[in-house]
Write a structure and sequence with these properties.
There is one protein chain. By secondary structure, the chain is α/β, with parallel strands linked by helices. Helices cover about 25% and strands about 25% of the residues. It is built from 15 helices and 40 strands. The strands form ten sheets. The protein has a nine-stranded parallel sheet. Strand 25, helix 12 and strand 26 form a beta-alpha-beta unit. The chain is globular. About 0% of the residues have low confidence. It binds ligand MIG.
Length: about 675
């Protein structure tokens, strides 16, 4: 039996998700042909969803023992059973238990260890997974056209690898992107940024990058710099680099409508923007006021938009984050008119939360107000909505690969599978609450299944005020996530590590990250090269241990580590399950204190300033010998091995080369 089977329904749009095309088993034109797929009962349905659309419904019974994994960036645990999820990229900063849609759409499911399935469509898709104990998986795609892929293999992990192999290699950023990043919406000027850098250096807490949020731009116009706020920008970028700091500017999806804005003018002239009902460029208000959205469904428009990043790479910039690319819309030319300044004023008086409350529905209406040009055909945005952010990432990634001679950092808010080849993602606006830390842990595993390996959450939480305790615990978890970024919202409590009094604990926690970078970097690259998951549920590694099956708050990290982060308030430790004997490692700020711990359940003590992790039996991992202030001063080959194993296979390169190959793996032995 083939390990991967492909079925085509109707005439689906290209999504670019699958890189390796394979022959189609069947082209399914209607209900009578749907029976050829053994894994699901398939019906054609009508009048579904907010648009009373026609669609295809897939149903499959679940056995009690089937865990349903997957769905990337969604709420709830790693086991998706018991809830409804909707793939429909949405800017929802206040996600809670009932939230069904977040910023990305990742339509991959793993049904127990039986098979994996990918519903490849940019349309809205509803997943009812054992809702109300129905014991069925019900998937309703609001389209009559999609590609369906079924993956079989030898257990969960093998099935995921088969899927990953089909969707192509994940994005790999430069080494410095594995360092710690500080960000905040509210850094406005070069002085603000310098202050952050200076305070980190004074506090002796390592730092590799600072994100520049929307205020660096000239009136929020993409690819501009506000010269007053950042005079002599190029000099400033290089001055920062000398200190080991990379600046990472934000790029928003909307291009300001304004004569004289070169990007606007070129886009209009060439027909590179999305169009409205009258076939004119569609106008939607976002941060810069009225904007046009690049129509990244057109290959030429993608190429053009990607080439614009050169404006900033010419200034020495080597990393970007792409925001508002669901796309988020405040209101459009079709909305009840609401002057932008009224809106800004309402922002000043109302809280961020209130203002966002009504936004989702507005955006939904507007998604039926503009069009893309796909192979010469005008296609309503709403039909291909989930692909937009991913294609913007592709545009940026391809552009940057063209422009630069080395690797770059790129991470996006919105995504669709396929975009993982061009950039990483962050998990969007979360809150400074313990629940979102727990969700972060589960999402890391689910996102890795879907190819998003370079990812992480806003550490400490974006909205709301982080407590010292929450930030420390969150940092201790993010120590292990490829993207480690402290980010927070305008108006919230300041969240840099030096804002919480005594910095000793923060120094310890961030220093651990840096001591581990040789391991994290090496395991990350190896995972990408081998279509593996850098972070995994325990069940994937120990499929025969029933105790591992439902563990949601521990993860395997790379080939050799297990983590059990403290994710609850007022805890002085936690319960941890060891599927086999392991080495328990405590980092006290300077030393790694290693002890043997036997398989089974343990109660461990973890003070807020300590990080505890576990090395598998007969494994060893490299840690740096010295502490540094940034990866610029790090020699990833100057390491020693900890753990009871004798050797480790380390991936080593200069941190920027694009020539990433298995030959760069060296075997280290204990002396
Ligand atoms: O409408 O650029 O998710 O990280 O700080 C809000 C300001 C726009 C949303 C992003 C967030 C960023 C913020 N942005």
């Amino acid at each position: 039996m083939a390990a991967v089977k492909k079925y085509v329904f109707g005439k689906p749009y290209d999504t670019y998700a699958i890189e390796k095309d394979i022959p189609t088993e069947s082209v399914i034109g209607g209900p009578s042909e749907a029976g050829v797929i053994k894994e699901f009962k398939i019906d054609y349905v009508s009048n579904i969803g907010p648009d009373n659309a026609d669609g295809i419904r897939f149903e499959r019974a679940l056995a009690d023992e089937d865990i349903v994994y997957g769905l990337g960036e969604t709420m709830h645990g790693m086991n998706k059973r018991g809830h409804e999820y909707i793939s429909y990229n949405t800017d929802d900063p206040h996600h809670k238990d009932t939230t069904r849609s977040l910023y990305g759409s990742h339509n991959f499911l793993l049904i127990g260890d039986k098979f994996g399935v990918f519903f490849d469509t940019p349309s809205r898709v509803v997943f009812n997974i054992d809702v109300n104990d129905s014991k069925i998986v019900e998937v309703i795609a609001e389209t009559d056209s999609l590609r369906l892929y079924i993956f079989t293999g030898d257990g969960c992990y093998d099935i995921v690898k088969k899927f990953r192999n089909m969707i192509g290699k994940s994005f790999i950023p430069p080494l410095w992107a594995f360092g710690f990043c500080q960000s905040r919406w509210g850094y406005k000027t070069a002085e603000d940024v310098s202050e952050v850098v200076d305070k980190y250096r004074q506090a002796n807490i390592p730092l590799d990058s600072v994100c520049m949020d929307i205020d660096y731009m000239d009136r929020y116009i993409d690819f501009t710099i506000n010269e007053k706020r950042f005079p002599n920008f190029t000099d400033y970028v290089f001055e920062m680099k000398k200190k080991g700091i990379h600046l990472v500017p934000i790029i928003d999806a909307g291009v300001k409508v304004e004569p004289g804005n070169e990007v606007y003018e070129e886009g209009v002239k060439n027909g590179f923007f999305c169009t409205n009902h009258e076939n004119k460029p569609f106008k939607a208000a976002v941060w810069p006021g009225m904007t046009h959205f690049p129509d990244v469904f057109q290959p030429e428009a993608r190429k053009w938009f990607g080439s614009k990043y050169k404006k900033l790479t010419d200034c020495g910039i080597e990393g970007f984050w792409n925001d508002m690319n669901e796309p988020a819309i405040f209101y459009s030319e079709y909305s009840k008119k609401q002057p932008f300044w009224d809106w800004v004023l309402s922002f000043l008086s109302k809280s961020w939360a209130e203002r966002h409350a009504s936004k989702e529905s507005n955006a939904y209406k507007d998604y039926k107000n503009f069009y893309h040009l796909i192979n010469g055909e005008r296609v309503l945005h709403q039909k291909v909505h989930n692909l937009y952010g991913g294609l913007l990432t592709q545009a940026a990634g391809e552009g940057l690969s063209e422009i630069m001679d080395r690797r770059f950092l790129l991470f996006s808010r919105s995504s669709y599978i396929g975009a993982h080849r061009y950039g990483g993602i962050w998990t969007g606006d979360n809150n400074s609450c313990w629940e979102h830390l727990a969700v972060n842990v589960c999402q890391m595993a689910s996102l890795n299944m879907c190819g998003f390996v370079y990812t992480g959450a806003d550490t400490g939480g974006f909205g709301g005020n982080a407590s010292r305790e929450l930030l420390l615990r969150w940092l201790a978890f993010s120590d292990f996530t490829p993207l480690m970024r402290d980010h927070s919202c305008l108006g919230t409590r300041k969240q840099e590590c030096y804002q919480f009094g005594d910095t000793e604990a923060f120094r310890k926690v961030v220093n651990l990250r840096y001591r581990l970078i040789p391991y994290i970097y090496s395991e990350f690259v190896k995972a990408v090269l081998n279509d593996e998951m850098y972070m995994r549920p325990l069940h994937f590694d120990y499929p025969d241990d029933p105790k591992c099956k439902y563990i949601d708050d521990q993860l395997m990290v790379g080939g050799d580590l297990m983590i059990a982060p403290v994710i609850t308030k007022d805890a002085d430790g936690r319960k941890v399950y060891l599927p086999e004997d392991m080495t328990v490692v405590r980092f006290d700020g300077t030393n790694f204190i290693c002890n043997e711990m036997q398989a089974g359940e343990h109660e461990i003590t973890v003070p807020g300033h300590e990080v505890v992790f576990f090395i598998k039996k007969n494994h060893a991992i490299p840690v740096t010998v010295n502490t540094v202030q940034s990866t610029m001063d790090m020699d990833i080959t100057d390491v020693r091995l900890i753990g009871d194993g004798e050797s480790y296979c380390q991936y080593v390169d200069d941190g920027i080369t694009r020539d990433i190959r298995p030959e760069n793996i060296v075997v280290l032995h204990k002396p």
